[in-house]
Write a structure and sequence with these properties.
Elements lengths: L5 H4 L2 H15 L32 H4 L14 H5 L9 E6 L5 E4 H6 L4 E8 L4 E11 H8 L7 E6 L7 H5 L8 E5 H4 L5 E6 L2 E2 L9 E3 L12 E7 L6 H5 L23 E4 L9 E2 L7 H4 L13
Parallel strand pairs: 1-10, 4-11
Antiparallel strand pairs: 1-2, 3-4, 4-7, 5-6, 5-10, 7-8, 7-9, 11-12
The structure holds the ligand Nc1nc2c(c(=O)[nH]1)N[C@H]1C(S)=C(S)[C@@H](COP(=O)(O)O)O[C@H]1N2 and molybdenum atom.
The site of molybdenum atom has 6 residues, from loops.
């Protein structure tokens, strides 16, 4: 039996109206069951061989337990506040050390790539984890289109900075907005690294980084920057938001590593979000379980410093 989402059985306008009435009358925000569903679009994609053992995180958990500080620092806040974000039209400025710089509409980017489902483990540096069926395309396809010059060694990413639609920006004025992240070029070109446009068979809910976010499954979740508007190829290692805030806690590489504890907590195990009341912690895997694919990227590097 196929489960229909609320938005599939209820016309959008009707749905929105009803929500406003509910919100207005009861003085509450978005109910967690409905969060992020108003703009959901079914996507066309192919299945892939990327799967993991174990259960996929229930969708309700993955779309209501978020980190997206542009909409507040509470886990439940992005689902409550991100719906006002305008994600259409959307464009991405691609520049720096590339032969084809330019500002590309999201539709143009999507025209030339094929979407596939990737079921990945996702491990936050805070020691919780999920298993998410992302839908996206290889970042390498986009970078190849931009055609890096011989000087390009890193890729820098930037999130939208639109305080009118992102109340968390105003609530945390000392946070170094916009959120920025970066990868080494070979990490960015790795086949596991994707740009996601959807999850659970539909377009991304805003709170999960609509309309376009990075997913790097062997690194801590904060590397997977959301709602990207700018990609710059650089010669030097670019700054990253969490490293700027606390460089003794969050490094540039931040590969998942159960043997290197965070200065304030162990990274040896993790709590699967949404797995139920009696589910226990599970061991964290080196490179989040993707070591066979990615360990060689770090040959000769001291992984103990590579937090
Ligand atoms: N722009 C932006 N991207 C971000 C964050 C953020 O606060 N702002 N949080 C990061 C962190 S800490 C994690 S764990 C993941 C959470 O992704 P999810 O909410 O889709 O699970 O997004 C990452 N990307
Ligand atoms: Mo995170």
């Amino acid at each position: 039996m196929t489960k229909l989402t609320y938005s599939q059985v209820t016309p959008k306008a009707d749905f929105l109206n009803r929500r406003q009435i509910i919100a207005g009358a009861a003085g509450i925000g978005v109910s967690s069951l409905l969060a992020g569903q108003a703009n959901a679009k079914t996507l066309e994609f192919t299945k892939s061989d990327y799967k993991v053992e174990g259960d996929i995180t229930p969708k309700d958990a993955a779309i209501t337990y978020n980190n997206f500080y542009e909409f507040g620092t509470g886990k439940d806040q992005p689902a409550r506040y991100a719906e006002i974000l305008t994600t259409d039209p959307w464009s991405v400025e691609i520049g720096g050390e590339v032969n084809n710089p330019g500002t590309y509409g999201l539709e143009d980017i999507l025209k030339d790539v094929s979407l596939e489902e990737r079921i990945y483990r996702f491990r936050c540096v805070e020691a919780w984890s999920m298993v998410v069926p992302w839908i996206g395309f290889k970042l390498s396809d986009l970078i190849a289109k931009a055609d890096p010059t011989g000087n390009a060694k890193y890729v820098a990413f930037e999130t939208l900075n639109r305080p009118e639609e992102m109340p968390g920006i105003g609530w945390a004025p000392s946070f170094p907005w916009p959120y920025v992240e970066g990868l080494r070029l070979d990490e960015a070109m790795h086949p596991l690294t994707i740009m996601a446009t959807g999850m659970y068979g539909e377009s991304l809910p805003n709170q999960n980084g609509a309309p376009l976010r990075l997913v790097v499954p062997w690194k801590y979740g904060f590397k997977s920057i959301k709602s990207i508007v700018k990609i710059t190829l650089t010669e030097e290692e670019p700054p990253t938001t969490w490293n700027r805030i606390a460089d003794n806690e969050y490094g540039f590489y931040s590969n998942v590593n159960p043997e290197v504890d965070h200065p304030r907590w162990s990274q040896a195990s993790e709590r699967p979000v949404g797995a139920g009341l009696f589910a226990g912690r599970i061991p964290t895997l080196m490179f989040n379980g993707y070591g066979d694919e990615v360990a060689s990227l770090y040959d000769g590097m001291d992984l103990r410093k590579n937090f």
